[in-house]
């Protein structure tokens, strides 16, 4: 947490400036009533141009997060749904870990590991994922010498969280219900 202006870490200062700018925008008087209207998309954002799944495929997603994540259309739909709920950080972390596992170069692996850590794992990260301290500590130790399995434990925890929490919400959502009509 941010304490005292002199001791503010760089990222905390950036976050405070961002908040100040956003508050400034919100506090400005609108020029007209139309400026007060916040646009809201009634229709969910269409997933990327990929082939729409068969009804059978889409119905399998209710019981299998892995089948959903392996299907480009399913992944795009799930991501759109999570964005609409402002909770896409878990999926973004999972995708970043999948991309990380494809890296061959040790130098690129170290850079990507640092980026993933700073974006998703470290305390107060911009897209901090909700993992327990034990998992966070193990992940940090794994990053001393990055390997393809450095994020495995954290990725498994996030996968389990999405399976238990995000997937059931997605299945009840308009995003999914439109697919199975």
TrEMBL record:
Organism of provenance: Gorilla gorilla gorilla
InterPro entries attached to this UniProt entry: RGS, RGS_RGS5, RGS_sf, RGS_subdom1/3, RGS_subdomain_2
Key words of the record: Cytoplasm, Membrane, Signal transduction inhibitor
Protein name: Regulator of G-protein signaling 5
Thylakoid recorded as keyword: no
Upper classification of the organism: Eukaryota, Metazoa, Chordata, Craniata, Vertebrata
The organism's place on the tree of life at top rank: Eukaryota
GO process annotations (BP): negative regulation of signal transduction
The protein's role, per its UniProt record: Inhibits signal transduction by increasing the GTPase activity of G protein alpha subunits thereby driving them into their inactive GDP-bound form. Binds to G(i)-alpha and G(o)-alpha, but not to G(s)-alpha.
Gene Ontology CC terms, in alphabetical order: cytoplasm; membrane
RGS domain mapped to chain residues: 64-180
Keyword Membrane: yes
GO molecular function terms noted in the UniProt entry: GTPase activity
Compartments in which it is found: Cytoplasm; Membrane
């Amino acid at each position: 947490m941010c304490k005292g202006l002199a001791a503010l870490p760089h990222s905390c200062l950036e976050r405070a400036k961002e908040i100040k700018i956003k508050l400034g925008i919100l506090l400005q008087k609108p020029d007209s009533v139309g400026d007060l209207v916040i646009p809201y998309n009634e229709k969910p954002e269409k997933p990327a141009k990929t082939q729409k799944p068969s009804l059978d495929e889409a119905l399998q997603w209710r019981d299998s997060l892995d089948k959903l994540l392996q299907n480009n259309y399913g992944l795009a739909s799930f991501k759109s749904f999570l964005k609409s709920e402002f909770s896409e950080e878990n999926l973004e972390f999972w995708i970043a870990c999948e991309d990380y596992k494809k890296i061959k170069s040790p130098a690129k692996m170290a850079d990507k590991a640092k980026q993933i850590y700073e974006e998703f794992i470290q305390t107060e990260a911009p897209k901090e994922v909700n993992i327990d301290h034990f998992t966070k500590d193990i992940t940090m130790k794994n990053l001393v010498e990055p390997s393809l399995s450095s994020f495995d434990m954290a990725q498994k925890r996030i996968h389990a969280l999405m399976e238990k929490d995000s997937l059931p919400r997605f299945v009840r959502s308009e995003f999914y219900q439109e697919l199975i009509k």
